[in-house]
Amino acid sequence: MATSGSVDLTLTSRQIIAHALSLLQVTASGETPSAADAAIGLTALELMLKSWGAVPHLWLETEGSLVLTAGTQNYTLPAAVDTVSSVRRRTSSIDTPLTEYSRQEYFDMPTKSAQGTPVCWYVDRQRATTVLYLWPTASASVASSTTLQYTYQRVIQDVDDLDNEADLPQEWLETIAYGLARRLGPIFGVVATPEFQVVASEADRLLQELSAVDQETASLYMQPNSRWSR
Which of 36, 42, 59, 165 has the greatest count of CB atoms below 10 A from its CB? Predict the structure, then answer.
């Protein structure tokens, strides 16, 4: 018998919620949750996915680019940017890594408006905005010939309605359903049932297993970080 040749399995939020509630036996298998139960499930799903997004994941790693402006000290990054892991200058297709500074290191510098070739960066991540600071600021000649490339972890997309898919790879679908069921158990008052105990244990196992493989496979090299005198 031939295989399907398809690798596009996905589930809507409505399907994930229905599966989670059936795992808890709050609804019968194949039964459609009520509008009220689906709304509760959607809120719990949204909160769970956002909390999962606070942990680095390979599928969230993304590349961004900035056009430099002479004398500009900081740049507001797109709303999808969560955390920045590296920044590079690109001139004539050649990338040069910049050094990351802490908040104190950057704001302690007395000459933030100095112009030249940027060599360090600091990211100020606030609730509503993420701002990238450079030092020194780009001179006119550097700005005209250089772009800034950066690697960042993007924010997991919102689940705005029941027909949205979860912004995670398909191998996470089962983990999402079990994780959601675990969160819904106390809301629906089924934490004392045998079904909930099985679901909670399986949710922990699935999340632990996927988290263990959701890592870079390349070798990691570490060395002391140095700072030059200013």
Answer: 42
Report CA-CA distances (Å) from 52 to 56, 60, 148, 195.
Answer: 9, 11, 29, 24
The C-alpha atoms of residue 26 and residue 22 are separated, in whole angstroms, by 6
Tell me what pLDDT residue 229 has: 47
Q: Given pLDDT bands bounded at 50, 70 and 90, which one contains residue 230?
A: very low
pTM of the model: 0.86
Query: Three-class SS string for the chain?
Result: CCCCCCCCCCCEHHHHHHHHHHHCCCCCCCCCCCHHHHHHHHHHHHHHHHHHCCCCCHHHEEEEEEECCCCCCEEECCCCEEEEEEEEEEECCEEEECEECCHHHHHCCCCCCCEECCCEEEEEECCCCEEEEEECEECHHHHHHEEEEEEEEECCCCCCCCCCECCCCHHHHHHHHHHHHHHHHHHCCCCCCHHHHHHHHHHHHHHHHHHHHCCCCCCCCCCCCCCCCC
Distance, in Å, from the CA atom of 56 to the CA atom of 36, rounded to the nearest integer, reads 33
List, for residues 119-151, the tens digit of each pLDDT value.
999 999 998 899 999 999 999 999 999 999 999
| Tokens, residue 29 | 């298998």
How far is the C-alpha of 188 from the C-alpha of 202, rounded, in Å?
19
